[in-house]
Design brief:
Mean pLDDT: 84
Oligomer: single chain
Distance between the termini: 74 Å
Pfam family, one: ABC_tran
CATH topology of the largest domain: Rossmann fold
CATH superfamily of the largest domain: P-loop containing nucleotide triphosphate hydrolases
Strand order of the largest sheet: 6-7-8-3-9-10
GO molecular function: ATP binding
Strand content: 15-25%
Family: Belongs to the ABC transporter superfamily.
Low-confidence stretches: 395-406, 425-434
Organism: Microbacterium amylolyticum
Number of strands: 16
Keywords: Amino-acid transport, ATP-binding, CBS domain, Nucleotide-binding, Transport
Radius of gyration: 29 Å
Number of domains: 2
Structural class: alpha/beta
Number of helices: 16
């Protein structure tokens, strides 16, 4: 058994599931390089799968029908025995585990949310939610109180006494999620949990799952055939094809660095604006002016990159505002030694490094400078020029948009001429010509 890592809740190594005759013989053939089609009288559903699921992450397993993803999740749930390999849950290898111990693992560590809800039709919503607690022998008053508490959490306050058929599809799926949460297990397994819902309700449920995850921090293994759903929900994604895991990575990894032609073809139609974040496309901020710098220093910093403006930051790289080369020039000509009087406050030009590209289009259009990207501590970590934003999204109807600054930068010749003049401290301001 592999040494257990406390940050890893589920670990699979060399996992196989073969149905039919001569299963072990089929595994050996597969290990020697045979394909699914080379097996005689056997079907290989999962082939040499290795992956880790970290505590508190949403790990998405994505693939087309027949790729093996649903078989894999049933192995994690203990519904299917592995033909070969190891599968650990919280450091315990459940392969060949005694049935009693396996049932305890499933009861205490794993809960399942099904595609078609799987609610008990003659029980109330509250009773459905409380069912896992009933199986554990929790007294009725306690489990009912817990059920109503979780129904509040998933937005179903007041629906506890209804029957499942009185609820819409989206509401029934919320009940399914609530029932899984009531079990209070470490792991939630979700097998195509939203695929039976219409698109609007499906997106609503995806949003709700992410909101719940912020509060609860569960470890979720989510199965889907929809790559956009995988990209939206997953902290990391395992892409399956013909029983094999062909790539594991973050949504950004899979979108920007596909492992092979199959994955590359898969991601062609992904809505990149909903996946890539500001941090994925930002560039280093150059130049950045310190609030302590004088106007001559600011002009020199803007000269070489031929920029007409730059961000001004304090000692902690918090943005104070922006300064243009025209304003810095006027300060030099007036003999000023600080930038304070000409720093322009900004607001709309700032985005978070975690913001997806879809949410930064409007700020990018309105910003007088490349978008400033800040981190959780409000420090400037990069910038996004509009042309970089468009390029990140690939060719499209806006790809030919003309990118201009509100004022053209001063020529280097003008800057050099002014900087060459002695610093007299004169208050006289002269007209700037081009």
């Amino acid at each position: 058994m592999t040494e257990h890592d406390n940050d890893v809740l589920v670990r699979a190594e060399g996992l196989y599931k073969v149905f039919g005759k001569r299963q072990q013989e089929s595994v050996e053939k597969l290990r020697r390089g045979a394909s699914r089609d080379d097996l005689d009288g056997a079907t290989a559903a999962v082939i040499d799968a290795s992956f880790e699921v970290k505590r508190g992450e949403i790990f998405v397993v994505m693939g087309l029908s027949g790729s093996g993803k649903s078989t894999l999740i049933r192995m994690i749930n203990g519904l299917y025995d592995a033909t070969a390999g190891s599968l650990e849950i919280d450091g315990q290898n459940i392969i060949d585990m005694p049935d009693k111990t396996l049932r305890e693992i499933r009861r205490d560590h794993v809960a399942m949310v099904f595609q078609h809800f799987a609610l008990l039709p003659h029980r109330t919503v509250a009773d459905n939610v409380a069912y896992p607690l009933e199986l554990r022998g929790v007294e009725k008053s306690v489990r009912q109180a817990r059920a109503h508490e979780i129904l509040d959490l998933v937005g179903l306050t007041g629906w506890g006494q209804k029957l499942p058929n009185q609820l819409s599809g989206g509401m029934q799926q919320r009940v399914g999620i609530a029932r899984a949460l009531a079990a209070d297990t470490d792991i939630l397994l979700m097998d195509e949990a939203f695929s039976a819902l219409d698109p609007l309700i499906r997106r609503e449920m995806q949003d709700q799952l992410l909101e719940l995850q912020k509060d609860l921090g569960k470890t979720i293994i989510f199965i889907t055939h929809d790559l956009n759903e995988a990209m939206y929900l997953g902290d990391r994604i395992a892409v399956m094809r013909d029983g094999r895991i062909v790539q594991v990575g973050t949504p950004e990894d899979i979108l920007t660095d596909p492992a092979n032609d199959y994955v590359e073809q898969f991601v062609q139609d992904v809505d990149r604006a909903r996946v890539l974040t500001a941090a994925n496309v930002m560039e280093k901020a150059r130049p950045v002016i310190s609030v302590k710098d004088g106007p001559r220093t600011a002009l020199r910093a803007m000269r070489d990159p031929f920029l007409g403006a730059a961000y001004v930051v304090d000692a902690d790289r918090h943005i104070v505002g922006m300064i243009t080369d025209h304003d810095a020039m006027r300060l030099v000509q007036k003999g000023e030694r600080t930038l304070t009087s000409r720093i322009t406050p900004i607001s709309s030009a700032v985005v978070r490094d975690s913001d997806v590209l879809m949410d930064i289009f409007v700020p990018a259009v309105e910003a007088p400078l490349p978008l400033a990207v800040i981190d959780d501590e409000d420090r400037l970590v990069g910038v996004i020029p509009r042309i970089t934003l468009l390029a990140a999204l690939g060719p499209g109807p806006n790809a030919t948009e003309e990118i201009t600054l509100p004022t053209a930068p001063l020529s280097n010749a003008i800057i050099d001429e002014v900087l060459a003049e002695p610093d007299t401290g004169s208050a006289e301001e002269t007209e700037i010509t081009r």
